[in-house]
Specification:
Number of helices: 23
CATH superfamily of the largest domain: Phosphoenolpyruvate-binding domains
Strand content: 5-15%
Radius of gyration: 25 Å
Structural class: alpha/beta
Shape: globular
Distance between the termini: 30 Å
Strand order of the largest sheet: 1-8-7-3-4-5-6-2
Mean pLDDT: 89
Helix content: 40-55%
Largest sheet: 8 strands, mixed
Number of domains: 3
Low-confidence stretches: none
CATH architecture of the largest domain: Alpha-Beta Barrel
CATH class of the largest domain: Alpha Beta
Amino acid sequence: MSNLNGIAASNGIAIAKAYKLAIPDLSFEKKKVEDTQNEIDRLTEALEVSKKELEKIKEHAKVSLGDEHAEIFSAHLLVLDDPELINPIKDKIETEQVNAEVALDETAKMFIQMFESMDNEYMRERAADIKDVTKRVMAHLLNVSFPNPALIDEEVVVVAEDLTPSDTAQLNKEFVQGFTTNIGGRTSHSAIMARSLEIPAVVGTKEVTEIVNDNDLLIVDGIDGDVIINPTDDQIKVYEQKQADFEKQKQEWAKLKDEPTVSSDGQHVELVANIGTPDDVEGVLNNGGEGVGLYRTEFLYMGKNELPTEDEQFDAYKAVLEQMGEKPVVVRTLDIGGDKELPYLDLPDEMNPFLGYRAIRLCLERDDIFRTQLRALLRASGYGNLKIMFPMIATLDEFRQAKAILLEEKEKLTKDGVEVSDSIEVGIMVEIPSTAVIARQFAKEVDFFSIGTNDLIQYTLAADRMNERVSYLYQPYHPAILNLVNNVIEAAHAEGKWAGMCGEMAGDSIAIPILLGLGLDEFSMSATSILPARTQIKDLSKKELVSYKEQLLNMDTAEDVEKFVREKTNQ
């Protein structure tokens, strides 16, 4: 029996035997070939078989995970069709007269190294895509079996170095009780998908694949981040009880599905959800969401070869608004750039893409793209309770320009006889420190604020949230962050406006009492976090938390804040 500790990536307890998901031996010999056409034909066949497999995986992912996650495999299919990758492989076979395995390996390594060296997170993710895809092609060239998690037909815990998107999309929730990996974090593809599938996961254990053997009995504690290998009978009993307690807790949470979110002293706040596609709405409603606080529209633009049309966007927005009925839907306009790029836009390379040409900055310059999206939103506005939010606003001029374009498009549509709602609220994401600092000026012109803490934290503390070396500086409870959040909320309330939050912090169990005490009106989070948050708020007294406000804002460190909250709320 031994224990490992990692990152709790998806809640729950799994107890089952280990299934090691190992990449097969893909070693090969370098050969001089005379018949280069035969090698190119072998490559072509391996590419075609890989495409067919990925199409099946994509369809499986649509059913089990929804369109948003299935789009990952659209990107993989694009890799297999990309002449920038495939042609150099064929050229190498012909000019160097090497076997297809060598040409594939050397070309793929060149692209992977190139992408991994880039500062842009989106491009680094493309390196992972190329790795995943070319391993599959290599397996077919070598006629060896490639891992197929979809074939798992008994209860197991999957153990792997990491789970690629194609691995995770094939996991059958009926049999895969949980998984654990050597690497990864809460924001990795595998962790996000685990939460969508609602299976326990512990990632970042560093050495689970070295210690665990096939058929070892494992306990994966996705609540506390522990992995226990070949546990004792007593440990199994303890974790079976913890598993039962968690399931019972989920049943208790479910009782609040149709209840409002009210503190113990009768103060109401809204718990709403972050979504990426219309398919996500079902999860919002099933988890008692009171609305959508962030609809990330960039997923409409990604995994494609061209911009979505106005009608395509209209259909997507209309679908979400109709499903949500009278409940509010806050739609964020296109937020591309930084770690999200569109290859077909041919955006310029930048030294600091997170601080560069992205989001509203791109939209104001490419107003043809922006106007198309705004027209689609305006046309859909009559089908529900639409609110529009502009991202990455740094100056009042940017907001004024964006709103002016919105009003111009509204006037055009109205003249054309198109029905447009007259009650659309127009707000901004607060994710740049300068905006939070002068929130009082913004509050006179916007209808609402939604605080995007993911970027606000990294910009305020000058710490790239994707960089492991400075991850210790990504501190949601840092007093500087709390003071900025408080400034935004107070500015909104002074003008009779509301303030929400759509960053990860909104669903954090330590942050929730702080935000309730600061007066946050709307908390937007992943759908599966809503019922636990509602349960937590039900037991909190807002009046009591307000009384701690000044103490919290004047503390020295994030650690002081966390310790204080735990003591006062018995967490």
